[in-house]
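Budget justification, computational time. The allocation requested in the original proposal was used primarily to generate C-alpha cells for proteins on the priority list. As evidence of use, we reproduce two of the resulting records. The first is shown immediately below.
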Amino acid sequence: MLSATTQRGNIMRLTTAQALAGANSVVAYATGAIIGNQLAPDKSLATLPISVFVVGMALCILPAGMLARRYGRRAAFLAGSICGVLVGLLAALAVVISSFWLFCLGMLFGGGYAAVVLSFRFAAADGVDASRRPRALSFVMGGGVAAGVIGPQLVTATLHVWPAHQFAATFLAQATVAVLAGLILQGVRLPHVSSSERVLGRPLRVIAKQPLFATAVVCGAVTYMLMNFLMTAAPLAMQMCGHSQEEANLGVQWHVIAMYAPSFFTGRLISRFGAVPVISSGLLMTALSAVVGLAGIDVGHFWLSLIMLGIGWNFGFVGASALVLECHRPEEKTSVQTLNDFLVFSTMAVGSFASGGLLSVYGWDTVLLVSFAPLAVALIALLLSVAIKRTC
C-alpha cells in the first residue's frame, strides 16, 4: 500500500497526464474523418483513419499490458508517449505530402497511444485501499474534461497557421503536448511489479467465465463501441448537413467534456448505489442521445446528442471498469485489466469500421438507428447478471 502523500501525487500526475494525453484522441476524432475525406482515393474510406486509430488501440492493448506486467506501468507509459509523438509527426507529414495511407499509419500509432492513456485509470487504483479505488479511478478519468477543451481548441487555434497544409500544424502541436504528458508521467511512483504478479494468479479462462466479468466486458464494449460508432460519424455528418468545421469542433469539445466531467462524482455514485445502476443509467442516456439525433439535423440536435452520448459513455464505461476491479485478485490485476481492455477495444473496432460505411451509404439516421441493437444486448446482460447474483 502506498502512502497517502504518494497516492495523492500519483492521482494528480495521472489526472494532468490524462488531460494532456487525452487530447490526442480528441484531435484524432475531430479531424480524422475530415482529413480522410480530403485525402482518401475513395470517399467511402473517409472514416478509415478513425477505424485504424481504433485498431491501433486493440492491437497495442496486449503488448502494453505485457510490458506493464514485466517492467511496471511506467515502462508502458514511456512507450505510449513515444507513440504519441510519432502520430503527430507522421500525420503532419501525411497532410503536407497528401498521403492518405501515411495518415492512416499515423492514426495506428495514435491508437497505441490512446490504449496506454486508458490504462491511467487502473494505475490510479494501484496501491490504494479497495474502498477508495472507484473514486481514484473516476477522478483520474475526470482529467479528460481538460482534454475536451485542449483538443478542440488545439485544432481551432492551429487550423489556419499553415494555410497551404490545413491541420499539419495541429498534429505538430499534438506531438508537443505528448512530450509534456510524458515528462509528467515520469514522476508517477507506483508499487513495484512483484514476482507473484508475474507468475501467480488464476488462468484467464477461469476468470473470463465469471458472470460478473462477462457483464463488465459486454457493458464496457457496448458503451465504448457506441460512443466511437456515433462519434466517428458525427463531425463528417455535421459537415454533410452544411455545418462548419468550427461548429463540429465545438460539438466534439462539449462531447468530450460531457464524457469526463461526471467522473468527479461517478465514483461516489458507484460507491453508494453500486456499479450496475450506474451502468444502466449510462446505457439509457446513450439511447436518449440517439433519439435526440433522430429528432433533427440542426446544430443544436447534434450538440445535445453528443453531450448526452458523452454522459452515457462515462456512466457506462466507468461503471464497467469498476466492475472489473471486483473480478480479480491483486496478483491478477494487470492481466485481467488488459484482457478486459483488449475485448472492449476489439469490439469497438468493429463499430468504427461499420460507422463510416453506414454513413456514406445510408446516412446519419441509419447510424443512429443501428445503435439500439447493441444497447439492448448490454441491458439484457445486466439483467441476467443481477438475476444470477440473486440466486447465488
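The second record produced under the same allocation is shown here.
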Amino acid sequence: MAWQALKIAADAKTAEGLSEALMELGALSVSIEDAHAGTAEEQEIFGEPGEPPAGVWQDALLNALFEADADLPAIVAAAAEALGLAAAPGFEVEAVAEQDWVRQTQAQFAPIPISSRLWIVPTWHESPDPGAINLVLDPGLAFGTGSHPTTRLCLQWLDRNLRGGETLLDYGCGSGILAIAALKLGAGKVVGVDIDPQATQASRFNAEQNQVSAEFYLPDDAPSVKVDVVVANILTNPLKMLAPMLANAALPGGRIVLSGILSHQGEDVLAVYREWFDIEVADESEGWVCLSGVRKA
C-alpha cells in the first residue's frame, strides 16, 4: 500500500490550527517541525523543566500522511477555509512507497561499543563480541538506548569504577540501562527510580531480558535508601532541585555520578553539589559533561 506525504509551510499563528484541521480531514498523521531545522536559523523552543517555554517555531513545516487516493488540493483548501485564511497555503506532495517500517526502525539501532568489554546490543542483533558484557536492550518509550552521549558517559564511568558488590541508586532510570549495566558489572543491590510509569515498566522488562534482578519504583513508592553509588542522568534543573535528596541517599564516602548536563552548565551544578560532595568534572563528550564526586563525612 502506498501513501501521500503532504508538506505545508506555516507560521506560528497557523501551524497548530492547520495540523488539527488536517487530522479532521482524514490525515493519518501530522507532525510539525522547524522549517529551518539543521541550519544556523534553527530555533530552540524547548527549555529544561523549571524554565519558561521559549515559544513556538516562527517558520514551521507540517508533514501530513494521507491515503493514496486522498484529494490533497481539496483538503488543503478545506483546511484553509476552516481557519478562515484568505487563501490556501502552498504545498508539496510526495509519494510514499510501501516499506517494512519495523525493519526500517530497527535499522536505526545497531550494537554500540561502550568500552573494550561492554556493549549495548538491540534484541534483534547478534552481539559483535559474545565474550563481552552485553546489555540486551529493546529501544522503546523510555530514554536510554546508549546512543546519547550522557548515557555513554555514565556507562563508561560505571565500567571504570565499579569494583563489585556496591549498592547503587539509579535516579531517573529511564530504560533501566544504567541499573542493568551496574549489575552486569558486579554491583550488588540496585534500585531504580523514575517519574514515568512507562520507564519503570520498560526497566523491569529490560532487566528480565538481561537476566538480572533490580527494583524499580515511582518516586512516591520508592524506599529510602543509603547506597555506595548514586547515579542520575537527568537534566540540569532537576539535578539542582534534587540535590538534597540525592546527597542524602549517598553513604559517607559514597560516590555520586551526574549527567544530562551541558558543558556550559557544569559549574552551576558543581556549585550546588559541593555542599555535600568533593566533586569535579569526570568526563566530557559532544558538549555534555559527566560529574563525579565523593560524599563528605
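A brief technical remark on that second record: The first strand starts at residue 3 and ends at 11.
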